[in-house]
Structures are given as C-alpha cells and as structure tokens.
Amino acid sequence: AQSVSQHNHHVILSEAASLELGCNYSYGGTVNLFWYVQYPGQHLQLLLKYFSGDPLVKGIKGFEAEFIKSKFSFNLRKPSVQWSDTAEYFCAVNPRNAGNNRKLIWGLGTSLAVNP
Amino acid sequence: DAGITQSPRHKVTETGTPVTLRCHQTENHRYMYWYRQDPGHGLRLIHYSYGVKDTDKGEVSDGYSVSRSKTEDFLLTLESATSSQTSVYFCAISDKETSGTDTQYFGPGTRLTVL
After folding, report:
1. DSSP of chain A, one letter per residue?
2. Tens digits of residue pLDDT in A60-70
C-alpha cells in the first residue's frame, strides 16, 4: 500500500538553528508532493508544493523542499528557524495515475518546538 | 485563505445523539473532503465528494455519512455519536479542476466532544 513516512515525530530546536524534516513515500510512479503547516490551534495551511520542474521548491516563510526522485524523498528545510515556526508539519503525497488521484496520502506529522 | 467555513466550530454532545457538521465553500470547487485529526494518527480521510450527490468513502468512514445537495455545502453526519468520535474535524476543498494541481485547502475545523 502507498504510504508516507515522516521519520521525526518531535523536533526541538533553538532559534537560528537549521531545520530539516524528512519525508519519504512509497510509490513508484509520478507524484505531487506537499508540505502543510499547522500552527497551534489552527487549521492546516499549505507551505509549499511540487508538481514538476525544478526539484528544489521554495515556499512561504523561508521554507524550501527538495524532491529527490531516486530516494522517494521530499525533505523540508529552513536555514534558520524562529520561535514562530513552532507548529506541526505534515507531508502529503498525491500518487498521480494511480486511480485515486482525488486523495492525498498523509504522513503522521512532525511536531516542531523552537525555543527562544 | 480559501473561502471555507465550518459550523459549528465547537460542539459538545452526548453518546447516542445525532450530530451534523457543515462545511461551506465559496470557491465553487467540485472536490470536497472530510478529515478527522487525532493525536498520533495525523489526518484521516472520512469521506469525500467529487460533485453534487457524488460521494465516496475514505479510510475511516464507519459511523459517518455525508451528503452534498449543493456544490457549496458538504455535510458530515454522525448518526449516533460515540466517544471514539471525539476529535477535530476538518473540511477541505481541492482546486483540481481549475488548476490541475489538486491542492487541498482546509477549513478552520470543528472540535467535537462526545461525552
């Protein structure tokens, strides 16, 4: 079955530290890839997405992600985190041409806490 | 933010009572989704709709039903609420048919407590 794995469940960083959150998926075909962020008590917001073209995608608030097809990965990065980045981060994959491309497959999320 | 509202935003109910949650969109998108979010489980798809009167089950559909009589409204009903349905419920819409990118946008959520 198709799945998305986020290896880090909880991450604690100090302000100005660099961030990398892992996301791997299991599907051999073409995919659309997403990262969403959920700030405490709020709904999910789109951080960035990849559909085609440059595998290095830039999103809002200084985040970026790199699609590495050979590794089935779409890791999220930020060079210097801020306290306001404290949130839960979700990776999601849409397996195109899989017959179920109306649905996203979600990772379980990574909780990021940034200490001031 | 996409034009999605959910009502009610908070609800406390008792076991065995019926509950209906409403999702309303102003974007005129065909695809709408209901998810529940629970600690340790992430987001789980309950039901989705790909048009008026066209719905399908997600991975955790037992105990839930949906209806879509208008493009803008997608209703989620718990026929007889149980404590295991205590959760935060999110509605989402997809821009699949307009942009081809199938990006989902989320509503503010409904926090449901079943006593």
Report:
1. ---EE-S-SEEEEETT--EEE--EE--SS-EEEEEEEE-TTS-EEEEEEE-SS-SEEE-GGG-EEEEEGGGTEEEEEESS--GGG-EEEEEEEEETTSS-TTS-EE---EEEEEE-
2. 999 999 999 99
